[in-house]
Amino acid sequence: MALEKFIVVGGHRLKGEVTVSGSKNAALPILAATLLAEGSCSLGNIPRLRDVDVLARILQTLGVSVERDPLGRIATKVTSEENSVAPYELVSTMRASFCVLGPLLAKRGFARVSLPGGCALGDRPVDLHLKGLRALGAEITIEHGYVVARAKKLRGANIYLGGQSGSSVLGTANVMMAAALAEGQTVIEHAACEPEVEDLANFLKEMGASIEGAGSHRIHIRGVRRLEGCTYDVIPDRIEAATLLMAAAITGGEVTIRNIEPTHLEAVFDKFREAGIVLGRNCRVVTIAMQGRPKEIEVSTLPYPGFPTDLQAPMMALMSKGEGASVFTDGIYPDRLSHVAELKRMGARILRVNNTCVVIGGEKLQGAPVMSSDLRAGAALVLAGLAAEGETHVRRIYHIDRGYENFEGKLRSLGAVIKRVEDETPEKPPTV
Ligand code: EPU
Fold it and tell me: What's the pTM value of the predicted model, to 2 decimals?
């Protein structure tokens, strides 16, 4: 398949209204949780994304029928429980697919799921997932790159899920899904509090699970015998919403964002406030009318409710046009800085020491050919392109397609000049 790239012509102020899609990071574990259901599930607000397609393919190989109706809802139904193997070819392309492990184990007593391996964000371990499932009584071995998990019956337990970098979002999801069908009570301590974890808990509860405390660091789960299919709508994507606000800000624009849950973005809005960016909030609508350049800020990424690592790259792009020197530290993924070198190619002034970057804001960015190497880095480069002089060619946009529904269409509707074209530049082997 030919690769595609975006050509962004900078210098156009964004103006207008745009609607946020459903949350990718809520939709993926919720889709995995449909493995637990006896009947059919009907899911709304599931974004049209490459990652959703990959998970749908994995679910299909695991005997789940997955269909999208003309209105965009996804219907799922488990039609066969024969195959419990999630293969390397699919899992290695998307880490989130590892969260089929908990549901398969709980429902079928057996799972063989490929270890996802590292990715552009670094060496992303799964030790917390395995620790939690072992505590529930699973027997787990690693065989030829696969996690092989077995359990006749899972039993509730007290599980501490804190790791070196804090809590784990998908680790909490995996263990919570398994515990929902375990015998007895489970308490997850140091659970991830992200809204996506709470959304998964709400979906499981809609299916009949007994869960309290999701959204806090302690989750209580009382196992039930069976979970039924249900109808559910996924929360809006807080990362997409904030990325669109940052796109408006970097172009000095005036934009209204609809279908946003502002309470999920308090840490981000607090940084906006420090940077002198004024927002209007009204229920599920947020407006931005950017005046001047953002003022210098310090950003440290933290688990929720702190500033999300997923917004570190787009915020850095914004601050490269700011006043003064802003400081960014990513404590969750210390290597999530591949956008730095690309932003520098566009004229951004960034000094890096380990996982900290000092961004010396400037008035100008210049269009350049750049390469996205992960989803949020790709979005950051598009944002920089919107504010740069001339044309920016953002390559490898398949990363962006993983997680932003119709990104260029939404930006274009706000007046951005951006088009998707076939990338005819030959792919070169990596430079060493
Ligand atoms: N970690 C461990 N052991 C584990 C699991 C995680 O040490 O067993 C560490 C990680 O290496 C990292 C930290 O814990 O330093 C947090 O990782 P977490 O497990 O929370 O990440 P994740 O669940 O794999 C989700 C999102 C990511 C997002 C992170 C952090 C999904 C599908 N993915 O990943 O989203 O960056 O939480 O908030 O929910 C993205 O959307 O671009 C993206 C990468």
Answer: 0.97
